[in-house]
Amino acid sequence: MAEGSSHPRPDGDRSLEALWESHRQTSKQLEELMTTFGRFAEEMRNELRQIRAATTPAARPFAPATIPDARQPVRHGQMPRRAPELIPEYSNSEEEDIPRQEQSDSDGEVFFPHPARGRRQRQQRIESDGFRIKMDIPFFDGRLHIEDYLDWEGAVENFFVYMEVNPEKQVKYVACRLKGGASAWWLQLLQNRMREGKAPIRSWGRLKQLMRRHFLPTDFEQLLYLQYQQCRQGSRPVHEYTEEFYRLSARNNLRESENQLVARYIGGLKENLQDKLELNSIWSLSQAVNFALKAESQLQRHYRSTANRRTFMESNAGPSKVVTPTTKLPEAPSAPTNTAPEFKGGAKTRAPVRENPYAKPNVIKCFRCLQPGHKSNECPSRHQVQLAEGEEELDQSGLQDDIEDGVEEVLADDGEPVLGVMEKMLLAPRTPVETQRHKLFRTKCTINDKVCELVIDSGCTENIISKAAVQALQIKTTRNPNPFKISWVKKGVDFLVSNLCKITFSIGKMYICQVTFYIMDMDVCHLILGRPWQYDTGAVHDGRLNTYTVEVKGKKLKLMPVGSVQTSAPASLTMACLIAEQELLQLRSEGCSMYALVTSDVTEQPPLKTPPDIQTLINSFQDITATDLPPTLPPLREIQHQIELLPGAVLPNLSHYRMSPREHSILQKIVQELLDKQFIQPSMSPCAVPALIVPKKDGQWRMCIDSRAINRITIKYRFPIPRISDLLDKLSGATIFSKLDLRSGYHQIRIRPGDEWKTAFKIVDGLFEWKVMPFGLCNAPSTFMRLMHEILKPYLGKFCLVYFDDILIFNNSLDLHVGHLRAILETLREHQLFLNLNKCAFVVERIPFLGFVLTPEGVMTSPDKISAIQDWPIPRSLTDVRSFHGLANYYRRFIKGFSSIVAPINNCLKSPTFTWTPIQQRSFDKIKAALCSAPLLAFPDFDKPF
After folding, report:
1. Which of 56, 226, 310, 722 is the most exposed place for a label (fewest CB within 10 A)?
2. Which residues are paired to 141 by β-bridges?
3. What architecture is domain 860-932?
4. If you compute the radius of gyration of the chain from its CA atoms, what whole number of angstroms results?
5. Where is the CCHC-type domain (predicted)?
6. What is the C-alpha separation between 353 and 365, in angstroms, rounded?
7. What's the pLDDT tens digit per position in 502-515?
């Protein structure tokens, strides 16, 4: 290659100048390519700016003049270019698939990119332009609920309007969002139309018409209007009533004026709130809502201040003479009316007001419904105390149902003062009273502070009062302008009715009525209310219960007859003479003497006969069968109850509960007995929880500790509690049973030394702490089961079962049973565990255990539990449903297909509100019938196939 080379240079060889010339040409080509690429990039940026600046998202192609064809071969060093494509406005349909370009197999040609990448780029462009937000049609599962469907329908139409969906595609969008029952209905509709040769549904309007016809009742507009018309505040707070009012107003869309809305809203409020709002001039609905919230807050402050003053008066009131208030009747109106004064003696309720912006923060929590904002004695779910006067026995079998339905019972009057006694109303089924089958409705009323006998007879054509009552009450009479004769009083004798009088009478404290009576001589009663009274008042008669229901100022009152309770047989409902809460508090503030009656069911069972050899065996263990625990501490065993607190937890220090003097003396006596037994000791603990007393089944009292505060900061231990079904499966082949019951089993376990201060409780007289394990601690069941398992471990599953303080010994031979019973008793003596002989049973073939009855043939339900289920009333709240469901679920093994039968009741429990339909009622009746005829279940034999 060099000039000085001795070798000759070939013809094809390039010189140095040729190499430089080739380099210059290559550089020139590269510059041209870079210029072309820069121009192309600038055109692309301009095109993108034009797309972003467009005022509508309509689809537009790239300018074909500025972009080469995608099918042109790419020269070496040149970037491939994308073919023009459309940017659609919106697509979510199967008919609008993005067309794919065929990929070429030629070398050097441009391949069209994957359509998924194009969709992502288009989505990014649409989102970057800001014209669309991410939204979709909600799903619809076909629930037959009016407001749910209307909400879904409105959401669909809003989606179509905002997204500007083509009407031809709306049906497909809706069909894709149907599921469950709605999807099944849509598929069936398509198949039916195909079989009938009908055209497919193409418009949303037609689909909406068909869906409304299927998923809405034909009178749904009437139902919504009725709800709107009947919208009342009731016992709810103002904010809840306002929310429902706004919702129903929007649903009905009646085009009412602002003044009409205000009048409707105020008319649904409580009367005391209406009185407050009538003092102001209100011109808008928002103004009415604002005033109602303020008025509610003022009334609540007034109620709290009144309650505080009442508490102070009660604490300072001394014993004085019993005063019985009398009720003065109002002046008689000029025309026959059926009126009653506003009843203000009922138990007042206060709903939670946390959402009221004008109310002060309230941290009070109700122990009845577990909701904040009120106390348990002011709980809205608490049954109202009814008003009753008199000593006659009255029919109250339907009392509980009427309380729930908003119907208040009006009982007979009596001239004697009524002693205020408050008792717990027992739930009972609503059954007809047989004694009323042949009786007229009789009750007592008050006229001029005198008690008179009254009969309601729908067969009597007039209202009649006896001449003797008119003379005794000195009632003014007038001449009858149209005298007439009646002959039904005495056969063959006609009586001329020439005088009449207008009388105002009252029944109880709630029903007052003025009626025109014709005067005649009779001695069957003082007054007879006939067809004219029933017609004027619209009274409704219940023939089975023999009651009359009247409506006074929108409030239903039920007039109850006297003598409606059978005295020969035990009543299913405890009789309760009750007065209103306000009147009771007034009597208390006046110093009236009051007494509370506490009832308890005592069932005496005949003592079981124990065989002589077994009785001899029991007598040899008298040291562990004493009538009471020894007055010393139990031994310090290896298993003690320990309390581990969460690190950094705040120690509780709660005040003691307020008690009556009698309750305080009972609590003092119990505490002193525990001190004498050395079970408790005075404490200097930094934490304390309150103590209270509760009645036992035998009429005695038990002290309980409210340990919830200390349990919340205690570390929980998870020792397994045995499953009852597993225990029963181990009884196969057993024919002889004995049951042992520990006496106050918790008190036979010591607290770990050093943890006593964590069990401190407070009463009025001081602070004490436990040295033995008390009731109420969160880990107490685990500790007790650990101890029993450790002590009886060699015998468990062989011939012994343990469930807390119940020990069951089972065998199929008497000799073996006696030996095993002796072994168990010796083990209990060794560990100093004491028995309660009154709850023990020895060597029997039929024994109750854990709610069941064990026999050699198998296990059966307890007769006591079955009797309770058979008499179980119809549930009126979610709490009643839970109680019945828990008891029925305990015996589910006795009901074939229990899950299917109880499914409607499970659905009721899942709902946030109580709903009891005929479906739940049928399930309720089936469960009761199945349990009342429950079979005897044989013990499983695991040595055989089953």
Report:
1. 56
2. none
3. 2-Layer Sandwich (3.30)
4. 43
5. 365-381
6. 12
7. 988 888 777 888 89
